[in-house]
Amino acid sequence: MLSESVLSWLSIPHVAGRCMAVFWCAAAAIGQGGSANYAFVVGAGFLCDAGDSAPCPAVVKSADGSSYEMSGAGTFAAQSKSVTAAGTFTHKSASGNVLETGIWTAGELVRFESYGIAPGALLREGQAFGLRRFGAMHSRMFSGSMPAGGLAVFRIRLLPMRGVSRTATLEVNCALGKVPDERLTEGIRLAFEAGGVEFAEEVSGRTVFLLTRPAASTTPEAPPREVNANPTPAEVRP
Fold first, then answer.
1. Does pTM surpass 0.90?
2. 190 lies in a domain?
3. pLDDT for the residue 144
């Protein structure tokens, strides 16, 4: 019989593949529309900059100095509150020691507050969030969407490599658009249910919401039928 630790390690490739699939499906959904009208990315993918470690992953701390580092992506529908999202996390002590690592999955959108559309927000400090590194094909995935600011609260489950899973609420804040004064700091917050520790100090990390726009129809319309004002006798039917 396989031990729990062996099973955990065997599951890592499957979990990593699932997280990557969620990320790219989210990117594809942006350009194609569908039931989800928002996609979001947290400390991952095109938000990352090889020369700057601050954007990725997103880091949040608790009052005792311990922290969570989180990355992920997904899509959600603001009206139905359906969500498909996943990512990875690392829990560290105040001294920086790794306490646990694993994945998280979102099961519910608790609420979403939009700060509005922010045209041109993908450009920061003269760079397009590293979008160029993905090439022209992947850049087109995002061409049918608009960056937007907002605050999304998700109910998530954290699945560590070892130990039991836990449920928490994850707040994702993107400070674009008309941002409330109390949410000017971009990043994440994490609160465990049943009176667990709250991680409410946003340390670093870049986030973005992308509002899907309906794609224009590519089906050409049939040209109007021309009417001959002076038909020949053969064209006239009784």
1. no
2. yes
3. 61
Structural domain harbouring 13: 4-217
Question: What does each C-alpha distance from 131 to 30, 65, 74, 134, 180 come to in angstroms?
Answer: 15, 33, 18, 6, 28
- Give the residue from 106, 131, 115 showing the smallest Cα distance to 22: 106
Quick one: which of 197, 205, 111, 123 has its CA closest to 158?
A: 197
Q: Tell me the per-residue pLDDT of 117-127, one tens digit each, with 9 for 90 and over.
A: 876 555 443 34
Number of independent structural domains in the chain: 1
Two tokens, residue 183:
């949410």
Nearest CA among 53, 17, 4 for reference residue 160? 4
The Cα–Cα gap between 95 and 66 comes to 8
The verdict on residue 45 lying in a domain is yes
The residue ranges of the chain whose pLDDT is under 50 are 1-16, 27, 29-33, 123-142, 214-221
Is residue 87 a part of any domain in this protein? yes
Contact 19, 45 (CB under 8 A): no
